[in-house]
Amino acid sequence: MLPREKVFRDPVHNYIHVRHQVILDLINTPEFQRLRRIKQLGVANTVFQGAEHSRFTHSLGVYEITRQICDSFQTNYPDLWDDSERLVALCAALLHDVGHGPYSHTFEHIFKTDHEAITRRILCDESTNINRILREVAPDFPQKVASVIDHTYPNPQVVQMISSQIDADRMDYLLRDAYNTGTNYGLFDLTRILRVMRPYPDGIAFDANGMHAVEDYIVSRFQMYQQIYFHPVSRGMEVVLMHLLARAKTLYEAGRFDAAYNPRLLIPFFEGTWTLKDYLKLDDGVLNTYFTYWLDYPDPILKDFSDRFLSRRPLKSVTFTSDTEHLLPDLKALVAEAGFDPEYYTAENDSFDLPYDAYDPSSANPKTQIEIMQLDGSLEELSTLSPLVAAISGRMTGDKRFYFPKTMLQPASDDADSTYQQFQHYLLNGALINLR
Ligand code: NI
Fold first, then answer.
1. Coil vs helix vs strand at 225
2. Which member of 3, 42, 59, 195 has the lowest number of beta carbons within 10 Å of its beta carbon?
3. How far, in Å, is the centroid of ligand 1 from the Cα of 98?
4. What is the arithmetic mean of pLDDT over 298-309?
């Protein structure tokens, strides 16, 4: 334990309280400090300009919520909670996202990296500072922490604290993202939820009198996905980033990458030979620096996408459904006719989420359902008690979008612009429609 508690000031939780030397040492490792240089929401700051917060702030927040849960369990349920589990829970909370890279989801898609596997390596590979600090606790401690993150740790209370349909990770990112994007409907009553959260032998449940606070959290989460995480313009910027990286990789693979613009730190990823050390050198700034160099690159597509990314020129979009999907080849042909390579200048993008689900053993990935504890100690699944949650439970929500250059929407001034006019015939109220 530290001789004196250390605190970090935080806009969501006010103070992050650190009492263990191990936690402070983990925060001070280069692998963890690197998270300061990776934005939590990637390109979302191009739509919600406040969303500049980092994975570092989120990781500390998940740690703090977990610490508060442990304090409450230790004070109120000492017979049901074993406080010797506290350190493994705190370390797992702090480190659960340590394997994220810059613009994670897009980067992973292009370079086939996997942040969960990398998190495990950062914890378990003897070359890292994080592993060395965890090993000082006990030789098997790195594996223990990794097993909490992998959901294989034997104590379900610890696993559910970090990962379930209402866990410290989700509660922190929803509040933090709502705060930083300025969207107040993403807020919910964390203090109340922590107050009614209680351990039982098979996991974590909520007291019946806290049901509405839990319900409000589910509704907030639903709205954050629809309004923030699935924002069509943010996805238009993700498409730009995806095609920018894909173009760079294609040029490199074709042996056509101009050596003067070589992105040295990305080459191991182009070649598929990267090591953990290579991965830990990357952050948002490294990628943005290469994009700035490529503004002068001779290839027009790489140059244009670098400019689109840095100057915020997203692709535009319309929604489509299974009824209108057959029209996409026609639209792509018109985009090509207008002079754009459809491989880069068009895209299809789906974003769907399951806001909440009751346990379904037949599902490929069954979720731990939210249990409400009745006065007699029996458990009831949340959606059987809440009509609001029942209304969104088990239903995937989101949309499918087709992306294309904004030029296609310009008004046709003469016959030369008939390609644009034909394109626009397929669109009505932001959706693709079948022509009569
Ligand atoms: Ni997280």
1. helix
2. 3
3. 9
4. 95
For ligand 1, the distance from its centroid to the CA atom of residue 260, given in whole angstroms, is 38
Q: What CATH number should be reported for the domain whose range is 231-314?
A: 1.20.1250.30
Encoding tokens for residue 62?
């998940």
> CB of 123 within 8 A of CB of 92?
no
User: How far apart are the CA of 345 and the centre of ligand 1, in A?
Assistant: 32
Q: In what order do the strands lie in the sheet with 427-428?
A: 347-353, 397-404, 316-320, 431-432, 427-428
Angle at which helices 232-253 and 104-111 pack, to 10 degrees?
30
Q: Is 265 exposed, middle or buried (0-12, 13-18, 19+ CB in 10 A)?
A: middle
- CA 387 – ligand 1 centroid, Å: 29
- CB atoms closer than 10 angstroms to residue 291: 21
Q: Considering the chain, what is the average pLDDT of its residues? A: 92
How many Å apart are CA 77 and CA 200, to the nearest integer? 9
List, as one string, the DSSP characters of 137-187: H-TTHHHHHHHHHTT--S-HHHHHHHSSSS-HHHHHHHHHHHHHHT-GGG-
pLDDT classification of 24: cutoffs 50, 70, 90: very high
Interatomic CA distance for residues 422 and 14, integer angstroms = 55
Centre of ligand 1 to C-alpha 59, Å, is 7
| Residues with CB in 5 Å of ion ligand 1 | 97, 169
